[in-house]
Specification:
Rossmann fold, alpha/beta, 8 strands, 17% strand, 283 residues, globular, eight-stranded mixed beta sheet
């Protein structure tokens, strides 16, 4: 399937892949609308009160649904012992940039409006992009109740929509899913005529000073490897508590193999530890 998922026709196959992620034990799912954006909750048994995870799903801004990602996010919620909301943000090309960013922000404000004072952000791929963009927005504006995200942990984020990372060349053979021409088309569908270096489109090009802690996990066999590397370098240079885990031999989306793939299980434990640590403590 390398390079073959393109345009809206790929929504069905992509969602089918995500729907095959193994269902987590001890998690129930609930449809809801938060901040005017519909989506799904993943609610673990005995979840921590007064805290929530906001997960922005992947799909290159063109694919994916909260329903299709519910099992994937359920594992993250269970690992942290915290409820997680997945918004169905608007997709390109019908709703180009900045619609997805606006929906992500509205969902965050909706959680704050429910008196949830401890919020962490997670995201994968394009959702990782949105989570990092939202981290900057929410940290700068602090929200109506002065609520700043406790941190963000993202998987293989797309941080540079100008697609200038060297790994588009150095990992071109290793990556089993994506090629530059395919990715460029999906990004054009999302951005339209907008500048790819706009900080609301590409978090790599933003002012990262003062952000809460950030953790990134990425596979070594990804064309997106340098998107993660460069973001963390930029964040650390700005004084942010940021770190990167590169998983050797792993492709994009390797966390989908949770339950059977050792690297996925180890990553999930790391995610749970980080989120639990960040969401504990005083309100």
């Amino acid at each position: 399937m390398k390079g073959k998922l393109e345009g809206v026709a790929a929504r069905g196959p992509f969602n089918g892949i995500m729907e095959h992620v193994a269902a987590p034990d001890g998690v129930r799912f609930e449809a809801d609308t938060v901040g005017g954006v519909s989506g799904w909750w993943a609610r673990p048994e005995q979840a921590r009160k007064g805290a929530a995870i906001l997960h922005l799903h992947g799909g290159w801004f063109n694919w994916g649904t909260a329903l299709a990602f519910r099992n994937f996010v359920g594992h993250i919620a269970m690992s942290a012992g915290v409820d997680a909301f997945i918004p169905d943000y608007q997709l390109a090309p019908e709703h180009p940039f900045p619609a997805a960013v606006e929906d992500a922000e509205a969902s965050y404000r909706g959680l704050v409006g429910r008196e949830i004072k401890k919020i962490a952000l997670t995201g994968d791929s394009a959702g990782g992009n949105l989570a990092l963009v939202l981290l900057s927005i929410a940290s700068r504006q602090a929200g109506s109740a002065g609520i700043v995200p406790r941190g963000a942990i993202v998987l293989s984020p797309v941080t540079d929509l100008a697609l200038t990372g060297e790994s588009f060349e150095t990992r071109a053979e290793a990556d089993p899913y994506f090629v530059r021409s395919q990715v460029a088309g999906l990004v054009r569908s999302y951005l339209g005529e907008s500048d790819p270096r706009n900080s609301l489109a590409s978090p790599l090009h933003g002012d990262l000073a003062g952000l809460p802690p950030v953790r990134i996990h990425v596979g070594d066999d990804e064309v997106l490897l340098d998107d993660s590397r460069r973001y963390v370098e930029h964040a650390v240079g700005a004084g942010v508590d940021a770190s990167l885990d590169i998983w050797m031999g792993m492709p994009h989306g390797f966390l989908n193999g949770v339950g059977t793939l050792r690297a996925a299980n180890q990553t999930l434990r790391a995610i749970g530890t980080f989120l639990s640590d960040r969401l504990e403590g005083a309100s």
